[in-house]
Amino acid sequence: MTELLEPRAIGRGFTRRDGPAKVTGTAPYAYEHPAEAPLYCYPIQAAIARGRCVRISAVEAESLDGVRELITPFTAERLADTDDAELAVLQDCEIPFRGRVIGLVLAETSETARHAAELVDVQYETDPFDTRLRADDPDLYQPDKVNPSFPTDTSEGDFDTAFSGAAVAVDQTYRTSMYHNNPLEPHTTTALWEDGMLTLWDSTQSVHSVRSTVAKVFGLPAERVRVICPYLGGGFGSKGMPHANVVLAALAARTVPGRPVKLALTRQQMFSLAGYRTPTIQRVRLGADPDGRLDSIGMDVVEQTSRIKEFAEQTAAPARMMYAARNRSTSHRLARLDVPVPSWMRAPGECPGMFGPEVAMDELAEALGVDPVDLRVRNEPERDPESGRPFSSRHLVECLRTGAERFGWDQRDPRPGVRRDGPWLVGSGVAASVYPAKRMPGSSAVVRYEKGRYAVEIGAADLGTGAWTILPQIAADALDVPADSVDVRIGDTAFPKATVAGGSTGTASWGSAVVAAARAFRDKYGADPGDGDEAQAETPENPDEKDYATYGFGAQFAEVRVDADTGEVRVSRLHGTFAVGRIVNPVTARSQLLGGMTMGLSMALHENSVLDPRFGHVVNHDLAEYHIATNADVEDLRADWLDETDPHLNPMGSKGIGEIGIVGTAAAVANAVHHATGVRVRDLPITLDKLLPGLPGVRR
User: Fold this and answer.
1) 453-487 as b/e, with b when 16 or more CB fall inside 10 Å?
2) CB-CB contact of 209 with 241 (8 Å)
3) Residues recognised as catalytic
4) Calpha distance 236→612 (Å, rounded)
5) I need a surface site. Which of 225, 272, 528, 630 has the fewest CB within 10 A?
6) Beta-sheet pairing, 420-421 with 424-436
7) Can you give the residue ranges of the Aldehyde oxidase/xanthine dehydrogenase a/b hammerhead domain (predicted)?
8) Within 10 A of 164 (CB to CB), how many other CB atoms are there?
9) Is 162 helix (H, G, I), strand (E, B) or coil?
10) Using omega within 30 degrees of 0 as the cis cutoff, is the peptide bond preceding 685 cis?
11) What is the per-residue DSSP string for 377-439?
């Protein structure tokens, strides 16, 4: 059992320390780093889906004033390590997907670089290609594992026999779209080679991961690479691992030692070079007895990956542990397609993986004539169905019941399509949320006393989650000092190593290291340290992690209005109630939960990267056509939480909250749309064409 901190600063709603710098525009982002006489580079991308470039003509481009260099596969430096094919840019002429970088222009201004890139003439040889995801693809294969290291398939009991004999069953296929992360700050890098040292100002969720990766790619000792990222304009997973832009910027800067080089991907380029969430096809089967108790749960998922690098999202993972059933079966199959490399997006696995099962639960509730909240309560497991371990804490039932009370669920008429308000059909829906509560080993922190103040140094990244603010709160309680006497320094490989800001593990991982360093400091120097005294410690082991299943839980309630004539969908209310351990800072916590719920709303109503299979690229590759949710899409957005104490996690008693907010939201909205209209949409997003054929049509 972990020794919990006595909360004094923890639990208080401190305003964001980085807020003033961001709103006044003085926070330096990677591309904005002050650099003397920088050069600018612009990628040239392949215009075919598969093949090779055989000739690159740049006479006209190179004649422009200000063009410094054109780098192509014929002239580029050979990288020391090309095992990661996504990062092995400009190393050969092969084109594995449309948008692959096949050249780089380096110029005195960004406008010149972009114009020159447009003047470059490329000749190709084309090969047959396939970019269409199909459940019946004959070349589907079973990956060795799914992200990060879960078994691909699982089986317990006799699913087939149990499902075939179920009194009430649901067997449906659900689809989620291809989604692109689209942080407001694009993927940017400023690179400088000087005296054999590479410095990168990079927009990343992990400065240390970028350093280790780039050092390997270029065959450098890690100490010759420094990565700096004090501020980050969003990432949502897309900046959790290095992509091609980092290597491209470093390659370009290598040609002009001593001069900084800036590279910023355009919004359009991000759709092929910065990762995305794979589309999924989910067959979900639920079998229950007449009282609604599940006896069989099955989920079979088909996803896509790139031919050059495999990424398998763990979409079926939450179905393995969410509800009690003696017989269960899950599987993942991948299609290798001529598409860009998929990657992490907020709540990988749980976000798409809870859509199908939570809609299926709604369908099962309707078939049984059981309230959807009650159905979930009836299938609450006593232990983790997958591992058999007890939950360190599991308050899903309380989230469902408390959320239902706050939402006014008891006033709901269970019949679909019967409630109207003028032209609007009104309905409500519910879905559950879950996300693992983990921490990663490998972070280290330093606590130092400097001129009457405490300084905490750790190479963490604040991608908007509040690390600038909550790490001083954690350190203050561990040191037993006021929070305003603690400074924090983050976002630089000059500071001790920190794990990635991802998987909702940042606060738990870094905070544990900070607490360990603070306790070591107090043990060594007491309450009256001298100037320059310091102590360093790593994230300690937690033996409870082996004995308990650790998750955060939540319940999402949505009320929607659907225009009976046009099919227009408006979400009038979206409420979430969560059990996510001790809340370190309610201001930043609520922001994270609401942000996740907004992304889930966006997933439900709008987001869909439309890939044209004839040409192999996403056609709505900007924010004009890749629609995301705005304030007009929801009238009442609310996130609440239960007071939850869990002594088996970390000294703060906290669980990750950055991702759980998106989980279940889309299912809650889809279930509400069905309740409003009687139309069941199983293929996201919920668009007019899917609703209109089943609507009443004429206003009464």
Assistant:
1) ebbbbbbbbbbbbbbbbbbbbbbbbbbebebeebe
2) yes
3) 659
4) 25
5) 528
6) antiparallel
7) 24-128
8) 11
9) helix
10) yes
11) HHT--SS-TTT-PPBS---HHHHHHHHHHHHTGGG---STT--EETTEEEEEEEEEEEEE---
Per-residue model confidence (pLDDT) at position 700:
41
Which amino acid type is present at position 643? D
Please identify which residue in the block is written with the tokens 């320390």.
17
Q: Using one digit for the tens of pLDDT, what is the confidence trace for 170-187? A: 999 999 999 999 999 999
Written as six digits, the tokens of 645 are: 């104490």
Amino acid making up residue 394: R
- What is the per-residue pLDDT for 696? 79
pLDDT one-digit tens code per residue, 536-572: 999 999 999 999 999 999 999 999 999 999 999 999 9
| SS3 state of residue 200 | strand
Strand pairing category for 197-202 and 225-228: parallel
Which stretches of the chain drop beneath a pLDDT of 70? 697-700
Residues forming beta bridges with residue 549, ordered by sequence position: 391
N-terminal to C-terminal alpha carbon distance within the chain: 62
Tokens for 121, please give them.
């003439």
Task: Please report how the helices 665-677 and 355-368 are oriented relative to each other, as an axis angle in degrees rounded to 10.
Answer: 40
Q: How far apart are CA 519 and CA 285, in angstroms?
A: 50
Residue with tokens 């002429």: 93
* Distance separating alpha carbons of residues 276 and 97, to the nearest angstrom: 14
What is the radius of gyration, based on Cα positions, of the chain? 26
Q: How far is CA 571 from the centre of its chain?
A: 23
> Distances in Å between the alpha carbon of 301 and those of 175, 257, 279, 653?
10, 49, 10, 34
Burial tier of 216 (Cβ tally within 10 Å: 0-12, 13-18, 19+): middle
How many CB atoms are closer than 10 A to CB 26? 10
pTM, two decimals, is 0.97
Between CA 71 and CA 199 the distance in angstroms is 21
Question: From the CB of residue 584, how many other CB atoms can be counted at a distance below 10 Å?
Answer: 27
